[in-house]
Amino acid sequence: MLQTSIFPAIRELFGDERFYLQQDGGPPHYHRDVRAYLDDTLPGPWIGRRGAIEYPPRSPDLTPLDFYLWGTLKDEVYRQKTATLTRYEKPSKCHVQPSHRTH
Description:
Number of helices: 4
Number of domains: 1
InterPro entries: RNaseH_sf
Strand content: under 5%
Oligomer: single chain
Number of strands: 0
Mean pLDDT: 72
Shape: globular
Protein name: Tc1-like transposase DDE domain-containing protein
Helix content: 40-55%
GO molecular function, one term: nucleic acid binding
């Protein structure tokens, strides 16, 4: 997914600009293949479970995806009943907007 969807979309949105990629602590996000891909793809160290820079344990400051985004997105996407998985993609994409903040 990172290779086929996430990074191509990031490159399309940001080009060569610096960006921040944050994942939650889900086990698929720190699989050895994912970590190897991030090490090879990103120009510097990345923050994440078993990454070059570890998340502090139980830190709400560094995991807003767990505490806000996923619950809010789920509420919006499931607001309308949908029969197929493909139909969930459109509302999901409508509710996620890129943030072009400078840090």
